[in-house]
Amino acid sequence: MYKIVVFGAGANGLKFINNKQEYFETLIIAVIDNNKNRWGDCLENYFVEPPQNINNKQYDYVVITTSNGDSKSSIRSQLKKMGVPDEKIYDIEEYRRKVFVDNIYLTRNYLPKKKTTLNGKKIIIYSAIMGDYEGIKDIEKNWQQYDNIDVKYIFFTDNEKISSNTWDIRVIKDGSLSSRYLSKHIKLFPELYLEKCDYSIWVDGKFQIVGNLIEYLEQYLRNSTMLFFPHFARKDIYEEAKTCIEMGVGKKDDIIRQIEYYKTDGFPANSGLYEGGCIVRKYGDSEVKYLMKQWWDEIMKFSYRDQISLPYILWKNNFIPDISGEDLYNNKWLRCCRNFNIKEEIK
């Protein structure tokens, strides 16, 4: 149960309070506001208090309810000056995503935790960019070497002009696949492109490695042979498909045909969505290889939007991957460096 202080006694604050049942294990303990004219008002059984009263509260998070971007930034700065840690400050959408992940993924789907031990293991972190791109981002120097773990960084490209001080660049040509599908093939089938190892970590080419990905693997790979970041914006493939169509990403007819097929087959709504930008897999695992083959078949049969087909394949095979509970676009391990809009973000 999360103890929450609501910052904002306006219409959005009232709506958040009235809809608190949508936020799973949420207990509102106080409502604060900068408007002194509201102090003492009763808002759905909560008396509005001045912000300084937060110092007397035992809370887990503060939820800022204003929708105005400038006001939100100002309140966040105000709270930090008052000593509230940044990691405890959320806006409504950020908090919705957090509790969704924590309660739907980590509680419903998880077996007891057990830490993955990597001492003496070989890990290959790999990526790919095909086509005429300006280059790639080197790995930050501090994260290149690990004690007692053999780590390699391999980058695949069809561009012979690309170079790197930290990646092992491997030029690859395949006339049977377009650039888009060649990248996806490398992404899905590490055993076909990498030498033998214990685990592979796929990282999309638009990300720079800025943190210890071995730490990420050790922390979050617990009970499964695959690890994903959960999607922080959409809750299932139906929302993903709708967004892709609205944004003109992917072929509309292919996506509609795909979703209708999955729905007819009984794929349930609200089943979660995974980010495809970073994937940890146990190398050579027969079940993982089988799932990747099925995933590829779905991509070739329907839309190239691989995040739509992945949950369906996992569901069909009763496979539950581990998830990190972290935001792919806001974490300490990866930094998105390529300029992208919402169309590019939908993978």
Summarize this, please?
With 347 residues, the protein is of the alpha/beta class.
What's the helix and strand layout?
Elements: E1 2-7, H1 11-18, E2 26-32, E3 42-43, E4 46-49, E5 61-64, H2 69-81, E6 89-91, H3 92-105, E7 122-129, E8 150-157, E9 168-171, H4 179-188, H5 190-193, E10 199-203, E11 207-209, H6 213-220, E12 226-230, H7 237-247, H8 252-264, E13 274-282, H9 286-301, H10 306-316, E14 322-323, E15 334-336, H11 342-345
Parallel strand pairs: 1-2, 1-5, 2-4, 5-6, 7-8, 7-10, 8-9, 12-14
Antiparallel strand pairs: 3-4, 10-13, 11-15, 12-13
Helix pairs in contact: 7-8, 7-10, 9-10
Account of the protein in words:
The chain is an alpha/beta fold and 347 residues long. Helix content is 32%, strand content 21%. The protein has a seven-stranded mixed β-sheet with strand order 9-8-7-10-13-12-14, with helices on both faces. Strand 3 (42-43) and strand 4 (46-49) form a beta hairpin. Helix 7 (237-247) packs antiparallel against helix 8 (252-264), helix 7 runs antiparallel to helix 10 (306-316) and helix 9 (286-301) crosses helix 10. The two termini are 33 Å apart. Mean pLDDT is 89; it is low at 339-347.
Question: Characteristics of this structure?
Answer:
347 residues, alpha/beta, Rossmann fold, Spore Coat Polysaccharide Biosynthesis Protein SpsA, Chain A, 2 domains, seven-stranded mixed beta sheet, six-stranded mixed beta sheet, 11 helices, globular, disordered C terminus
